[in-house]
Specification:
Blueprint lengths: L1 E8 L3 E6 L12 H7 L8 E6 L10 H4 L2 H10 L4 E3 L6 E3 L2 E6 L4 E6 L13 H12 L14 E8 L2 E6 L6 H5 L8 H14 L7 E7 L3 E6 L16 E6 L3 H10 L4 E5 L1 H7 L5 E6 L4 E7 L12 H9 L3 H8 L30 H10 L7 E2 L7 H11 L10 E2 L1
Parallel strand pairs: 3-12, 3-13, 16-17
Antiparallel strand pairs: 1-15, 2-13, 2-14, 4-5, 6-7, 7-9, 8-9, 10-11, 11-12
Helix pairs in contact: 1-3, 4-6, 9-11
Length: 408
């Protein structure tokens, strides 16, 4: 069993725009949707976005790229079978209009009629069957197989009905289908493959791609035919130009100079500074990302101390997670008590054990367990250095009177 030591949402990402250039933006939501709900104030009706927070979008085919920027791009260019309402979390029909379970492994979906891909290819069951069977194949080479590996196969019932058959009962099916699982035109995708789809994307979404300069710039134009009833809003801006700008300071400099109108994924300290700049609107909002520390309760690493439940409880109580949120995340995140985000399917925080910050109780538990003088513990971290260092600061000895454990 792995016991959660420390868990909280990631910072939010900073969402920044110039008020004088953009009249209104859907702040605090996915950046990709900003272009569909904003009104540009330029004579050329163009919104210029600069991103690059988690790396260059190496492949616009999201099954093979799987970056945060790629998900934003996917939202603008493609559609999924189901859309999850950002405000309520409810599932809404997108390319599928209704669905029902035939049995505990088989989900039947009725597809929307009258939808056309950007290249003129009509949307129907063949597109769903080819897309999902292709990316879920064992040898597909998709970036994150877990997105599609639950699918056994997809079969066509008629021109506008498909059945998605899972390998085993899979309650998360709707959640996954409402996630980054875009549907591609089967004839085009069969001809060009993932590389061709990345170089010249074709979807059904609110924006069409007119130019791709991989790793540099992407130019999109409003899809005037996006009137078929998607729960996603139609594009409110005619043109969108997206630039890859990996360096945060360069993003800010471009924003201040007018080279871009919107940027995202900035650190809390940068967002706080930008809130003081006239003409700039800076927002922070949570993402689904969380930071957790897992403890080896199964004794696989042969650390006898951590195998003791009292020691694990002590470690949970030794870290002031609220202080970390306030000081490292500018208060724009929150402490949770689960190794999953409560917004995710099946994540019930009400059932989780709540551990208060109580260093005195932590020391008492260590003493009771026979570790009054501390013990050695290896910490392996993939989280940003600031978070890992803060955790080490709470657990590592500062003085004989404050020592809990020794981190190595």
């Amino acid at each position: 069993m792995i016991v959660t030591l420390y868990t909280k949402p990631s910072n939010q990402w900073g969402f920044v725009m110039f008020k004088r250039r953009v009249k209104s933006v859907l702040a605090g939501s996915v950046l990709a949707l900003a272009a569909t709900s904003a009104l540009a104030d330029r004579s050329d009706d163009t919104l210029r976005i600069g991103w690059g927070g988690d790396g260059v979008m190496v492949n616009a085919d999201n099954y093979y790229g799987a970056t945060r920027a790629g998900i934003w791009f996917t939202k603008m260019v493609w559609d999924t079978l189901i859309e999850r309402d950002a405000a309520t979390g409810a599932y809404k029909g997108n390319l599928a209009t209704e669905w029902s379970w035939v049995d505990d492994r088989t989900l039947e979906l009725k597809l929307r009629q009258g939808v056309t891909f950007h290249n003129g290819e009509p949307f129907d069951a063949d597109d769903v069957v080819y897309t999902l069977n292709t990316v879920s194949a064992a040898d597909s080479g998709v970036k994150f197989a877990a997105i599609v590996s639950w699918i056994d196969h997809v079969e066509k019932v008629d021109a506008f009905t498909v059945r998605v058959v899972a390998k085993t009962p899979f309650p998360q099916a709707l959640e996954f289908l409402a996630g980054p699982m875009p549907i591609y035109p089967n004839e085009y995708y069969k001809a060009v493959g993932p590389e061709g789809m990345s170089n010249a994307p074709i979807g059904t979404g609110p924006y069409k791609v007119v130019e791709m300069k991989p790793g540099e710039q992407y130019t999109l134009i409003r899809n005037e035919a996006y009137t078929w009833g998607s729960p996603k809003p139609a594009a409110g801006i005619t043109n969108v130009i997206i630039r890859e700008i990996p360096d945060k300071q360069t993003q800010v400099a471009e924003l201040m100079a007018g080279g871009i109108d919107v940027t995202a994924d900035l650190s809390p300290d940068l967002v706080e500074k930008l809130t003081e700049v006239p003409g700039v609107s800076a927002k922070m909002a949570e993402t689904l990302r969380i930071f957790t520390v897992g403890l080896d309760a199964a004794n696989r690493t042969q650390n006898k101390a951590v195998n003791d439940v009292r020691v694990r409880q002590a470690l949970n109580m030794a870290i002031d997670r609220k202080a970390m949120v306030d000081n490292l995340m500018a208060g724009a995140a929150r402490v949770i008590s689960t190794p999953c985000n409560p917004l995710q399917f099946g994540c019930d925080e009400a059932q989780a054990v709540q551990y208060p910050y109580d260093p005195d109780k932590a020391k008492a538990l260590l003493k009771e367990a026979g570790y009054e003088n501390g013990f050695d513990l290896a910490l392996y971290a993939e989280a940003p250095a600031t978070e890992a260092e803060a955790i080490m600061g709470y657990l590592a000895p500062h003085s004989p009177s404050k020592s809990l454990i020794s981190l190595s």
